[in-house]
# Entry
Amino acid sequence: MDDDLDEVFRERRRLLALGYRMTGTMADAEDIVQETYLRWYRLDDRERADIANPAGWLTTVAGRVALDLLGSARRRREQYVGPWLPEPVPADLFRGAAPATTASTDDPLDRVTLDDDVSTALLVVLESMTPAERVAFVLHDVFDVPFDDIAQAVGRSPAAVRQLASSARRHVRENRAKAVPRAEHDRVVRAFQEATRTGEVSSLMRFLAPDVQLHSDGGGFVSAARNIVSGADRVARFLLGIAAKHPELTLEEHQLAGGVGFVFRNGRAVQSVMDMQVQDGRITHLWIVLNPEKLTLWGSES
# Structure
């Protein structure tokens, strides 16, 4: 029994990684893990003994819990103040928690490369999926769960689940820009950060795509832009305006899932985390999370 419990407890980090990919926040991921374990402990000894693969059982149940949670989360986010962004996490938080290879599909052209499968860019795309599509995609393409098992989690036939995963895969291909090499991403982001020191709009615009977008998530708790800021000139002026208003902030470079990003602090307190997407040598998206409920992982100096 102790060996069985150890096996169950060892799954916690993997289940947390699954829950985060499902929902985009650590709080929701923790809720998924907690409810999954509660359902395990509600089983009697005979029921647990009949489970040949506890890890697979936990994964399937976590998918079912995530599906229920995503429905309520979507309703909550309809009432969210300003843009909603996924919670930023350190690059190595979930490293190795999912299979290293992409799940196979019947058609090689239907595969999606998930080299940055916890990046902000991908999580934003996942947020636009239906709950069933997201669950099918994450379970199959990230965690290599068979369609028959996913069918149990989402209450649909294996054929229907296969279609959900395929639809989600197409959605990712069509809406997520091709990832650039990390070295290229980091070079552009660091050059952009150096350009901000000049305080000149033209210096920043050299590293911003003409149609760049800035999303700022304060969640109604702190001041943040309620609307997306679009265009190189407007984004550059917006960022320089923030820097001028808050000279007390210090900047730290950190590795996020998609590459280098920045953590801003006021003293020891974290104020925001900025992540960016790079294409063709310029920044196309900036995501700034200020909502304190999404900054708990960055609350102390590293």
